[in-house]
Amino acid sequence: MSDTLTKAPPQAPTRPWAKIIGTAVLLVVLVLLPVLVGSHVAYLKLAQYVLIGAVGGIGLTLIVGQAGQLSLAHPFFLLLGAVSYAVLAGDPAETPDLVSLHWPPMLAVIGAVIICGLVGLAFAPVAGRVRGIYLGVASLSLVFLGLWLGQSLGILTGGTGSGRPPPTFSLFGFPFSNTTPAPTIAGVAIQKQQRLWYLFLAFAVLAYVLARGAVRGRIGRAWRAVRDNEAAAAAMGVSVARIKAGAFTISSAYAGLAGVMTALWLDLVKPDENEFTGNYSLTVSIAFLAIVIIGGLGSVPGAVVGAMVVYGLQQFFLLGANEFGWFAGAQFGGLSAVILAAFIYGLAVVLVVLFEPGGAAAIGRRLAASLSRKEQR
Amino acid sequence: MDTFIQLVVNGLGKGAVYALLALGFVVVFKATEVVNFAVGSLVLFGGYLVYVLRDVIGWYGAAAVGIVGAALVGLFIERLCAAARGADQNSLALLTIGVDVIITEEIVRRVGAAIPFIGDPFDARPILIGNVAIFRTQAIALVVGLVLITAFFLAFRYTDWGVAMRAQAENREAAALMGIRSSRVTATAWLIAGALAGVAVLFMATQDFSGAGLGRGTHAIALIAFPAAIIGGLDSTAGAVVGGIIVGLTESLSAQYISFDFSKSAVFLVMLVVLVVRPSGLFGTKELSRV
Amino acid sequence: MIRGRSKAIAAGALALVLAACGSTADTGAGATGAGGIKTDKGVTDTTISLGIMGDTSGVFKNLGAAINAGNQLWVDDVNAKGGICNRQLKLEVVDHGYKADTAKTLYPQLEPKVLGIVQLLGSPVLAALKQNLIDDNMTAAPASWSSQILNNPNIMMIGTTYDLEIVNGMAYLQQQGLIKDGDTVGHIYIDGEYGGNGLLGSKYYAGVHKLNVKEAKITSTDNDLTNIVTGFKGDGVKAIVLTTTPGQSASALAANQALALNVPVLGNNPTFDPALLKTPAAGALGNLYVAASSAPFSSETPKAAEIAAAYKAKYPGSPLNGGVDVGYVEGLVWQSVLTKACENKDLSRAGVQTALKSLNSVKTDDLVAELDYSSPGSPPTRGVYIAKVDAKAEGGLTEVAPLFTAPDVAGYKAPFQK
Fold first, then answer.
1. Which chains touch C (3 or more CB pairs under 8 A)?
2. Does residue C6 sit within a domain?
3. Which of A281, A304, B103, C266 measures 20 to 30 Å from C362, CA to CA?
4. Which residues in chain B are contacts of C247 at CB distance < 8 A?
5. Cβ neighbourhood burial of A14 (10 Å; 0-12, 13-18, 19+)
6. Prediction pTM value
């Protein structure tokens, strides 16, 4: 696994101008996105969706890429995160038949993330016993477990029929829903979707920064040591069991946050009706793996790129189909937006493994290297 | 008591088909240490060929073409894996996932609104013995399975190819030094996995077995072969058979005596328990790490 | 240094943003259009636009295509007679493939263009859009008949709900002497809004008639129900009730025959698809009774026959199933609502709501039983069409009891009924 994965980040950057300006422009665009999008709120929903994929993808790339533990259990933790948020922040007045603890929403988000981390920790001993691909398949069983628990624990989840509404997020009394009057930025009303965008952006930036810090720090080095050669790592004094446990905890915490974001995005917490279609299904397992491979195993910025490809393309095609009439032949067995998007990311996975196992991250590094070489001439 | 017997009959019948699929996994894993996540698409491809050709060249002809076709897709995937130089086992497994996504989507799209059942000669004609119904598809699957599995055991033990496979599984470098062409062994392993999938689909896309024709459901059933292979041990052919039967019986008995919706989780939970107790499966060889 | 620069630029961006901040004045979105009629979205002086959020590429594409066609046939008929409120009708069609995520992304594109939604297919889609419908005061006619959704004021239920379909069906079976008080029946249901709602009906009927219901919960992708029917046989059931998908129904019916159980099987509208008649289970379908709120495709009710003929003429080769009647009924209900709203001189979204709640007897030329919308939370009607599978009938079903309303339905209290 070591050749194809992200190596430790390089130490001395050459000339940082391109990077600074690029980052700055990106930040400005992200912060001003609601203004740029204007009344085409659908594209804002798309961007929010990509951020969900990014947060989940970062969590998965940490455990699969950096720590070398194959996990297919992400959807289970997404479900757990969404349900935990709904249970912790729920208002008993609105949902009298369901368990609702009416915590303040921000606390509920933190609580949901912690719960997911703890459950991930509980699964970690399995990773101690079971290795490699066996671990991947073992983690699949969590997805099925999630399906069954979601159906059976209706008093927590609301059942697969109508689920339960996620409590409206609010911070210090500022609700993330439609209000009149609403604040505006450059004339664009900042209502629910715009507010959710900023919330998701904050979550995503936090997730990104923390992950980069972990990768560059001691934790990252310990993970990579365990990934590359467990026996050697143990010989060097790394507590392998503790590192694996830590990796599971962190990745499930990330998945839990992505789950909370899913609940807020969908305006619904509802366990799936079956194991293949739905927000917490095997299809999502595979989508996250695709995000991680396409982005480059272990690369945090790569996970964001992967999320754009896997989560973003499909929604983008759908919007295009609606607005511009793409894929008009789909009704009669032709190519529809969903199918084309699936083809693209399946193909991307194959191409990445075949030709650039380091994924988008490796491609990015090569571009950056060739650019800086050009500057130096 | 009748119910129990009927459930056991149901379980054994389906178990035979799971064993066939699991055998395909094991053959590939023994030769290459790669887990084939694309088994669902091999099944769908073979089935699709049968569906499209059976009105043209008759069912038996179409079935033969389907088996060969699935085998060739297996070979294609093997060539892709060979082309991915320097990729480790996990990356190759992920490669098979990518291929699986593409093939599955395309076939499901082509099948479209139809519900193609392809078990024509033997589907939906059960044999009633006393109070117990034996589904013809299942019975034939059992017989075919037994024949194929026995053929495999004999081949592994007595043919050159079998020896080469076992040698490569044991120690790839030593086998290469002894003149065994690794690429040939790998290619035949994938061909066989594809062919087995092509045989299995003839029983899977039937009213008796799955109640559904060729479609996403068939792909889903192939997924159940995972726990079957894992329970037995990914590098044990005997394990594949045992695993398949365990999975079939767990499915049918837990559906009745616990609850139907639990039966799917039951299969995976049994797998989890087996893995925790014996991390390499019931009959798999333990992984030793070299320092 | 690098970090500092990035931070500075980010701060600059935020400053820009803050400088551009303001607040919305409370502008009303309404306007007054031709004829002195109040309008907001989706209505111009010459057109009224209605939306479809349907499934023409996912698991329900056969049904979805037929319902879309039914909607369109209705629009054509209305426009030919001069439209409503001197305006022509127009449809905006969206396909979500039965995926809640897709629907959620596409809804914001549709919403500004339409007055209301004439067809919303899919319970997961409806669940995901529930808040959106309330936020935008958008009224929608769902192609979903669960009484669990009647607590949503923006829903226009266009027929009998699943629970009542089952109550009526079981009453019919008992009337035909196929089951009697004290029998055991099995009910296979998909966990969720559809299947679970049907279960409420069978449990209610069982309570009244002292039947013993054996429940079997499945997911929407389980396809082999042999083990369940095996269990039912051991329990000695005298009938099987299904609230499942067509493929699953076929599996249960095939097992029913293969295991020599051969009891009558009751399903409702979504349990049957004429495509099943071309599968190996075709021989086992004779035991199935379908109790549905709308007429089967081959119904001899005059309006149904007229629609069937128009459908075959305009969409030759398209799947023949009851969806086209569903689509037409959705349209007819909207027609009553829009006509009333026009009388009230209010074609805004709020006006649609007011008009809807004032209607207590909407007639649909007997395509469904008469509808009453004046008690939100209560199913608007309680009658069904009972049909049996018939390979020779178009659409695979022949009706045996049109507009059947059992006495027991009056006593059933739906979950949100006041």
1. A, B
2. no
3. C266
4. 115, 211-212, 217
5. middle
6. 0.87
